[in-house]
Structure formats: C-alpha cells, structure tokens
C-alpha cells in the first residue's frame, strides 16, 4: 500500500491537528516534512512527530522544491493561504487548505483554475461538515423526514482564539487575518448552511467590534434568504461568548432538529398551537459512532487522496469560494447598511 508523504505548512494549533491526522493514519500516510517561520515551534513539532531536522523548513518554497510530497496542508494565517496553496497545486500536490480558503474572490478563482489544470486534488477544511450529527442531519433532510426546511439558525461562538488556542494574536491583525469572527467562525456557518439547505441568495449583516480591543470584528449577525429554496436563516458568530448554546437549529414543515455541540441532537415532530400549547413527539436521531470531527476530517481527506470511497461530501475549492462570496457580501452589507443579493 502507498503511504502518502505529507507536508504541513504552519505548525500552530490547527497545524498540529493536521499533523496528528497524518501521523495517526500510519498505514496510509506519514508526516514527511514541516514548515514554520517560528524556529522554536518548528523544533517542537519536529520532535513530536519524528521529522528529522533536514526536513524541517522555514521557507515553504524550499520544502515544496526539495521534498517528494504527495499531500500538503496549508495551516498558516489567512493572508498566506493563496500563495502557498497555489504553489502546492501548481506542482500537482493534493492540497488541503484551512478556512477561509483565501481572502479575495479572484484568488479563489485562480486556485480553482490551477487545480483543474494540474488535476491536483484539493479540499477546504470546513471541519463542521465532519461533525457526525451534522452528517446525520443532512441525510434526514434529504430523506424528507423534516419536511421542507423553512428556517435555519446557526450559532458558532466562543471566547476567541487567543489566548487559549492560537499560538499568537495573528487572528486579531487585519493584515494577517483579513477579518475577524465572521471570517473565522462565520465562514463555517455559511458553509454548513450551504451544505444542509442550499445556496444563499441574499444576506443582510451587522458586523461589529463590541468587546475586544482588536482591529477586526469580534461579533457578527447575518440574516439569510435562500431564494427559491423558500427558506430563511440566521447566523450568529462571535469571539466574546461565555458558555452557552453553540450549534444548529433547523425547522421544517414536519418537525425540528437542534444540533447542540455540547448536548447533542434533539429531533421533535408535532406542532405549537396559537394558544401556546405544544404537542410534540421526541424522536432519536441515529448518529454513527466514530472519531470526532477533526480526526474524521483528516481520515476522509486521506482516503480521498488515495482514491478510496469517502462517507462525507467533501468540501472542495468551489465550496471555499462560495462561502467567501457570502462572507464578503455580508461585510459589504454591514458597510452599506443594506441587503446584498448574491449572484452565482
């Protein structure tokens, strides 16, 4: 069996997730080379994953030039995604790029064109697609067991990536991140709405810096119109949230589904009457067991690169572009104070 030689560009916290994924698939892949501009982090991750010093790089170009890589993960600050992913795709290397895929639509189109020309496999790391109850929800909707969805609400929020997650405060720097909570958390929510419901046709948004003394937004609220899908939606994302609800609510003609990232799923059917009384039946959503979303994402990505069947509909570069289109339209809506239509 072929073992993929994997290279990871950017060995911070999310890079460590990718490294762990390649390392754990011992029969299918191995961590072959790593790249980071931080020499201390490079040494730490090199020791952790058994990468010899000669395959630890400060410059991703040298790594791509010198090493016989089969697959690359791009896990650097957002501003570098395009140049690094494009360089790997130009060499025909299967490339997994963290979200947001890039910061501009023209960059997204160029990545798509490069992958098509070189026939390199590619994926965007929308990890919420790999949450198992979200996969189960997708199948439930496709079977029509909720009826036709008419409302979806997504709340993805926490206290912020730094301190406590990110290795530095780059998320809060506009030059490096391009934006704040909307491009970090909201981009996941936009993609999961596309995955579960369909393309967003229009968006209105408020994007604010409410609490943190940072250059970028720390909270955003988006209202969505799915057009011909006859569904509306709302996204709330933020970096200032205490513990509370995080997840997805879907309301259809035949029932509702709450996908709570802490408490798990709740599937209800029945009705709420005008007098305030509710008659409902709680049902069980069959969620398969298995690894959590990050290891599962890496497992499915490796299978895809090896030409094996995958369980999940993998998010490609087009999905990365489509989520960015909506996110940038939301930023424009907030700037102009008016609804933005999405032209697909």
Judging by the overall fold, what is the CATH architecture of the largest domain? 2-Layer Sandwich
Uncertain regions spanning at least 5 consecutive residues = none
Radius of gyration: 20 Å
Query: According to CATH, what is the class of the largest domain?
Result: Alpha Beta
How would you explain this protein's 3D organization?
The protein is an alpha/beta fold and 344 residues long. The chain folds into two domains: 4-126 and 296-314, Rossmann fold, CATH 3.40.50; 128-290 and 322-341, Dihydrodipicolinate Reductase, domain 2 (2-Layer Sandwich). Helix content is 34%, strand content 25%. It is built from ten helices and 15 strands. The longest helix has 20 residues, at 317-336. The model has no long low-confidence stretch (mean pLDDT 96).
